[in-house]
Amino acid sequence: xxxxxxxxxxxxxNPFNYENLVVNRNGYLAYALISLPILLTIICSYYIxxxxxxxxxxxxxxxxxxxxxxxxxxxLLTSFSLLVSSIETxxxxxxxxxxxxxxxxxxxxxxxxxxxxxxxxxxxxxxxxEGVDSNYQEIVDLKNSFIHCLNIYEFLAxxxxxxxxxxxxxxxxxxxRFLRVWQQTKPTINKIRNAExxxxxxxxxxxxxxxxx
Length: 213
Fold this sequence. Notes:
This protein is an all-alpha fold. The protein has nine helices and no strands. The radius of gyration is 28 Å and the shape is rod-shaped. It starts with a helix and ends with a helix.
């Protein structure tokens, strides 16, 4: 039952196999160019035979059917090409965005900083005093890393939710790392939500985490 539900969920979120569609588009187009004329010939032959049997064959209607069928086939091929081009463009732009973040040293350091803290939840809520607490700068840096990292992931999650970044590409490249960050920061996020009475804080990150599970 679980396998069936996950399959249905995956189909609804991605009814086309985008990667296969983009990679093998030339093959699909070649198949369409071969199969559609054959289908058109079968339909026209059936039309001629049927109307010949019923003694109602009309050359004008046949020409109209033929021209309409040709136009429909052309529309299908054009729509397919536009669909594949839009998917490919989206995936390329998504790859550029994700790779640019991979090169962002501040983002990488922020992730490392919060991932190796055992008591993240309590440290984030500490209010150190400059000049009094010896670990003042460490706490301030950790808070900045926490905010910077989650803001970047919130941006990514929102972009995915709005269809700007390809979701399947993100999952293939970063799903496991993203989920580890989410598990590390989730208790702290919930505590901040309660403290600020803001249940929507980092809601897009939570949405994406639920889709990655």
